[in-house]
Design a protein that fits this description.
single chain; 350 residues; alpha/beta; 2 domains; 7-stranded mixed β-sheet; 4-stranded antiparallel β-sheet
């Protein structure tokens, strides 16, 4: 890995150069909502906002859109299917470490047999530029999840310094991206500035779990937490906001929409949420997670038990989006620490 210094005035030029031959998605300020940002396809280099805390919807949408047309079909015999797929290269820029860790987690999840061909194809046509966070808020807990210094799978990672940005070149693709602009050799002071920036971010993070992820998995597997699940469920609206804002949730639904003449239509896949009542509804009308507390429990088990045991990592990166978006003010850190405390209390009474 090599490092270069990207002068501050070259950032806009970098985005401009990239936009000349491919689409670029990055964080922009939401219209009429100062301080709120979203990942969108850039229309001009000036839209790009390098300093932001978070976005409501994670950048996974660049590879896994909320609504994606898979193919069109007609009613001929045999039916004619026409695949709909984007093939043009693009760049995803301005991705924070927690979201880089999430993309890496989805790379692993979607590679499990049968591998998701669309995710793989979208990842292969993209270059990813990460950027260090400018600040953290009370919802961030990436240090607990070990994602605060994530770099994989970006091609280039930028950290703000006095001279502009310290650029970590992680792949040949990243080297090619930097070749479009003027860069400088780093000085010792540049490395010190970058280190100070990262330490400043970490010092702002106050939320965290009161046990390791391995211990949390043991607590969840042991059970005996019904009181907590029922209490949280009594506040939950089952709206699915926690899932739809999560950077590591990867469940989807498949829908066929016919035209009015019933002569053809489209097949789409859309994001789905395990917190919705219909999610676990199967043929015959049976719902194996009909009760809300069962769906709440499933979310924690999915994040910190099932996938942790199967894939060796939790499927949460500490971004805090679910807590920010929750319409019932359910905080994932508070509930998790409640579960840990409940377990400790049960052990002490045994």
């Amino acid at each position: 890995m090599t490092k270069r210094v990207l002068p501050a005035e070259e950032m806009t030029r970098l985005i401009d150069c990239l936009m000349k031959d491919r689409a670029v998605m990055g964080p922009v300020e939401r219209p009429g909502q100062p301080g709120h940002h979203a990942f969108e396809w850039l229309k001009s280099p000036e839209q790009f906002v390098p300093d932001y805390v978070t976005t409501t919807i994670p950048p996974k949408k660049a590879f896994f859109p909320p609504v994606e047309t898979l193919f069109t079909f007609d009613s001929s015999l045999p039916p004619k299917l026409t695949t709909v797929r984007e093939e043009a290269p693009f760049v995803l820029v301005g991705v924070h470490p927690c979201d880089l860790a999430a993309i890496d987690a989805l790379d692993i999840a979607y590679a499990q047999p049968p591998a998701d061909a669309r995710w793989r194809a979208n990842r292969e046509r993209a270059a990813v530029i990460g950027i260090e966070c400018s600040a953290a808020d009370e919802y961030c807990f990436c240090t607990t999840m070990g994602s605060d210094a994530a770099r994989k799978p970006c091609d280039l990672f930028l950290t703000s310094i006095e001279r502009g940005y310290l650029a970590e070149v992680r792949t040949a693709v990243g080297e090619a991206l930097l070749s479009k602009i003027r860069v400088l050799e780093p000085h010792e002071r540049d490395h010190f500035d970058a280190k100070r920036r990262r330490e400043s971010k970490v010092s702002q993070i106050t939320a965290g779990f009161n046990a390791s992820i391995a211990r949390l998995a043991e607590i969840l597997e042991a059970g005996g937490l019904s009181d907590v699940w029922h209490e949280v469920a009594s506040r939950c609206y089952s709206c699915g906001s926690c899932n739809t804002t999560c950077p590591t949730c990867f469940c989807f639904d498949i829908q066929d929409d016919f035209d009015l003449k019933l002569q053809g239509g489209v097949r789409r896949r859309t994001w789905d949420s395990c917190q919705l009542l219909e999610f676990a509804l199967v043929a015959g009308g049976h719902n194996f997670r009909r009760d809300r507390w069962q769906r709440v429990r499933h979310r924690w088990h999915r994040k910190f038990l099932y996938l942790y045991k199967q894939l060796g990592r939790p499927y949460c990166t500490g971004c805090g989006r679910c807590s920010r978006a929750c319409t019932a003010d359910i905080n994932i850190v508070d509930v998790t620490n409640q579960l840990i405390a409940h377990s400790t209390k049960e052990v002490s009474h045994a």
